[in-house]
Design goal:
The protein is an alpha+beta fold and about 600 residues long. The protein has 9 helices and 32 strands. Strands 10, 12, 14, 15 and 16 form a 5-stranded antiparallel β-sheet that branches. Strands 21, 23, 24, 25 and 26 form a 5-stranded antiparallel β-sheet that branches. β4 and β5 form a beta hairpin. α5 runs antiparallel to α6, α6 (about 505-525) runs antiparallel to α8 and α7 (about 535-545) packs antiparallel against α8. The two termini are about 40 Å apart.
Length: about 600
Amino acid sequence: MLLVRALPAQEVQLQASVNKTTVSVNETFEYSIQVTGQSTSLPNPSLPDLADFAVVAGPNSSTSIQLINGRMETSRTLSYYLQPKNTGTFKIPSVSIEVDGKTIESNEISVTVVKSGSTAPQTPGNQAPSRQDSDITGQDLYFKAVVDKKNVFQNEQILVTYKLYFRIDVRSYNFEKLPASPGFWAEEFKLPAQPPVDTEIINGVAYKVATLRQIGLFPTRPGELTIDPLTVVVDALVRRQNRSRSLFDDFFNDPFGRTVRKVVSTEAVRINVKPVPEQNRPAEYDGAVGSYTLSVSADKNSVKANEAVSVKIALTGTGNIKLLSLPKPKVPKDMEVYDPKEKNDITRENGVVKGTKEVEYIIVPRIAGDYTIPPVSFSYFDPAAQRFKQLSSQPLSLTVLPGAVVPGGNLTGAGLSKQEVELLGEDIRFIKESAEFFSSKARIYDRWYYGLLYLIPVIGLILIWNMNLRREKLRGNIHLARRKRAGRIAARHLKGAKQALQSRNQREFYRMTSQALQGFVSDKLNIQMTDFSATTVRSALTGAGAGEEEISNYVSCLQESDFRQFAGGDAESGEMDKFFDHTKKVLTQLEKYI
């Protein structure tokens, strides 16, 4: 308790905000909670009751630290993307946190929700932030769930493909709120790490289409089921166009554009699931739907008594293989059957879930003779033919020869059941011939080291106290904190460069070495990246006492790394190895001075 530093309540501020106060149904807006104080140990606020809104993304956390007139100020922001459920005016309740025994509350926020297609009035509170969504419209980017069929039988596969349609430059995407879709068994299809992109014409407009996700759903109950919406957060590059038509527009417009974040969701898809027909349903039918083949085999057809025989039943086809129940063989009473081993081999490709389910039975005949294992049958419903089909195997013939005879005229193991054999093994216990004993008079508190054990908690508290002082010192002195972590961060960048070197990724290799060179010097000398230049670095290194040779080696190494990072062509492996060793040597030399 002495090590915990109290945070005065008057130094903490809590504020809530939205980027829009007027939105339409199915439109997302950003809700942010900001905690500001003079310590890095700020409390985390909890999300209030949002019964009128759906959380489609978040929380996204960001932290900023400022040093103003020697006073440190920390700000932590949690952002959520919300979507209204109905029209009307709703209030987002205040958020509260507990600090030093006192409760701090944020402000309440009123949000007006209008019908889709209505024009939201522009207010000073939502004009500027709405630029995030106004740069990308539904005609430029939308997300769609495509199903191959909407009327299916129970346990029949539905292929769901999630496609992103876009006419802008999409940089990255991230799924948020994966749908639960109750009533379905899901099988995920593996897609390439880089989604394939095609072109489709929609209402005369050409769109690029990327398949982001593909799953096979098997409805587990009849009725109307719903595939819930899937939400994705997209980072896209857009160019800001000037409204004027001046000849200088192309000169003043940003040639690269800026990255805008957009949250898009699919619409819910309703599926009509029909029950499997009752008419002509076989008695042994157990709910299988699809198309299958059945095979039954034994590893041998002639054995001696008490020798094991392996009987395998395999079902191969398309459908929900994992949930199928295979039939059991009917074994003669003079044979003993052990618990089966089950194996599933599922493949998901070309939009079809298929595979093989195999069950292996170990059968041990006890008495000699000729035996027959009856055929095994399996029934399933074929949705393509809309009728039941029955599969049947051939009978298995097995010849059992007399086993070995032991003194007394009995067969080995004859007359013993599986349970009796297991009990016989448990009845035998080996006697230990030696053991180690301890004196009952020996007590731990009589030992000489017992008193030292009391010092361990005290030493631990002292160490934690020192660590806390050091941590607080680093928090209050950003320059010192950067100097302390400079070597560790540079080592991490060099490790990444080493991995890129081994995989022969030239661009990544030079990018990591450039970060190691820049980060090490900027952290050691407290140079901001906005002020980082060859002139600034030379001046700072000279002031730190570095020689002209070390400075020239560093600048030339940094320039070569930046040049090769963006230059075309492939560098030779030996050349990259030499550059890696040279970079480590340059940083080692500079460490003597800074």
